[in-house]
Amino acid sequence: xxxxxxxxxxxxxxxxxxxxxxxxxxxxxxxxxxxxxxxxxxxxxxxxxxxxxxxxxxxxxxxxxxxxxxxxxxxxxxxxxxxxxxxxxxxxxxxxxxxxxxxxxxxxxxxxxxxxxxxxxxxxxxxxxxxxxxxxxxxxxxxxxxxxxxxxxxxxxxxxxxxxxxxxxxxxxxxxxxxxxxxxxxxxxxxxxxxxxxxxxxxxxxxxxxxxxxxxxxxxxxxxxxxxxxxxxxxxxxxxxxxxxxxxxxxxxxxxxxxxxxxxxxxxxxxxxxxxxxxxxxxxxxxxxxxxxxxxxxxxxxxxxxxxxxxxxxxxxxxxxxxxxxxxxxxxxxxxxxxxxxxxxxxxxxxxxxxxxxxxxxxxxxxxxxxxxxxxxxxxxxxxxxxxxxxxxxxxxxxxxxxxxxxxxxxxxxxxxxxxxxxxxxxxxxxxxxxxxxxxxxxxxxxxxxxxxxxxxxxxxxxxxxxxxxxxxxxxxxxxxxxxxxxxxxxxxxxxxxxxxxxxxxxxxxx
Length: 511
What we know:
Amino acid/polyamine transporter I, 78% helix, disordered N terminus
């Protein structure tokens, strides 16, 4: 790994504006959330209402539009473009590539929501409007975590892969992907603003994902050892400890990330297989999953364009818009990482392969883990829904659900280890991408200095800890993503436009 030791001093290579402005912003936000938690959460809710409620349709349009563009790009002549030199072969096997792709983004959150999402929806009055819990509670999780969200990742991944491996660009930043449209303005105020917004969104996405799912790890520890520790304090301790684990893995580069990603996938699929075949709900899981998948496909465009203009339940604002925003802020890091590891694959292979591995793995997780507990609910073996309505504690309820499985303590350990491993690979890819943002240019194959990577590892963990100690509600955690995603949506459209323009020019040049 090249750590730039033979080049000009690190202080001249680093883009200090892109590095220090987000750093100072995070410090200020952390102080506010620590010392003014109620006021901070109130202001955040008001801002979220303005963007998510008033302009919620904006997120829906971008979501559906980018998904349709992904299909067009994959089946058109654009799909023939190799992300690298003509005739170059992929660096990673399909399994290794798919493992890193799946784990680099929201894999830990996928595990958390796979257990919990059906009862969150079942408690929402919108499900009663649609029909029965049996018919719809397991449909929305599949819809919210499959085609449109992965479309965000994959379209941008091929745009970044084209920029890095075909055009050989040395600036690994959002603004550089906009150069075909922005031209000279890429190096001016417009480009600087794009990069600042991207880094801020990256930090917001990290804060949301660590704040949402990490407390589950605390509840699992409490359940395993029969103790009741303070969730906020222990969560902060876990984040600090795992930060060191993630940092150690990151500093070993792509090789370390690849090994960790494979281990994650083996644990993940092992857990799914165990629940499916030994949980006692095999038939229900398969049949309900098959029906839910069919209902999602049949109603895809209706679900993708639902806005609830009379706000009878505000379901699209509370869930669909939030999820699109959540994935959009993660599009600052994950697609860069996917584009980087996709060298040697065609655009078509990257998009369709991503849908097969990424969407396929995600859907399997929601069908198996979600329908296991839904089956217990529907056949009267357990009443998880009533308990959730009474307590609102999704984390405690997930440990209760796992407690109904054979060899429950072992399953709890596997879930805990899998979440830690998922967080490690996600954190690694984020920190690596953020470190690249700190440089003016990076030569092909060159990696950021370890000191810069370490700085980002520490920075990325501060805001989640502040949000947890501020006891931010699920709604306020969602607000962080919704607010940050608003400007990112414009930039994503600009990147897709730039890719199509530049790729068209490239194909004409080949003829």
